[in-house]
Amino acid sequence: MGELKWYVLRAVSGQEKKVKGYLEHEIITLKLQESIPQVLIPSEKVYQIRNGKKKVRERNSLPGYVFISANIEQPEVMHCITGVPGVIGFLGDNEGGMSKKPVALRQSEVNRLLGSVEAANEFDVKLETPFIVGETIKVIDGPFNGFTGLVEEVFEEKKKLNVTVKIFGRNTPVELNYVQVEKQS
Fold this sequence. Notes:
Blueprint: E1 5-11, H1 16-29, E2 38-40, E3 43-50, E4 53-60, E5 65-70, H2 75-82, E6 87-90, H3 107-122, E7 136-139, E8 148-155, E9 160-167, E10 170-177, E11 181-183
Antiparallel strand pairs: 1-5, 1-6, 2-5, 3-4, 7-8, 7-11, 8-9, 9-10
């Protein structure tokens, strides 16, 4: 009949999770699990600092796109995919409509996609930024945001630094978290 290949669906930006949910619901309802085994939204974990606390959240790394493994040779599979609210079409159909046969991803692209998704899932959320005494850093969060300073001490286990920052022309020692600073290039 046909074989499973990876395709890229164009979705309304910001509604990728809804599209994935609708697709998964339709796949189960129509019993198409063998014809559409996987639906993925590529995402990455990012740090945010809110009210002085570090928060980790997942962000869509390719807004407007949903990846799907499917056998589109079957008409009911194609109808299931294209009938989902929020789906604009397949990436690769020349006119952007649903009439052309979608172009499947190359195996190298699939490997890269699946590798990045697996790496993101296995990624232990920790901030590894080994700072060196004497290194110049820039403060990116907190009351000293925008200041540059010099690393005086590194507390690896606490993920903190003692930094000397020049405030009003005077060197002032400040203790900062790793997430509050970035290396100066």
